[in-house]
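Exam revision sheet. Question 4 asks you to relate a sequence to its structure. Input first:
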Amino acid sequence: MILLGIGSFFAAGSSGPVTALVASLIHPSLRASGFGTLTLAYTFLGMALGPFVIGVVADQAGLLRALQLAPLVGLMTVAVLSVGRRRYPTSLRTLAALTGPVSIQGDPRQVDL
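Answer key, structure tokens:
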């Protein structure tokens, strides 16, 4: 249970990077729609679907087992964000080719576009 608490504490850590990706990869005229879609995804996948899935697993395997399996979602999130991190420079180049130069203020990684 201690590990579950620690994992829950750090679970919101993906929120910032994902929001930054949306801000930097979506054309400025579509950012509001992008942020809205991101908010819907967080709401439906995390806040609505998450407790439902944990409840279904708890009904089948018991509450303790369901809570033990819950951190696996975090591992899947890390895997998806790792793929996104590798594809990010390519996405920036594609965006620059379509819309012109892209500047990212404060980005410690020097991505030559």
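Marking note for examiners. Helices lie at 2-10, 15-25, 31-61, 63-69, 71-99.
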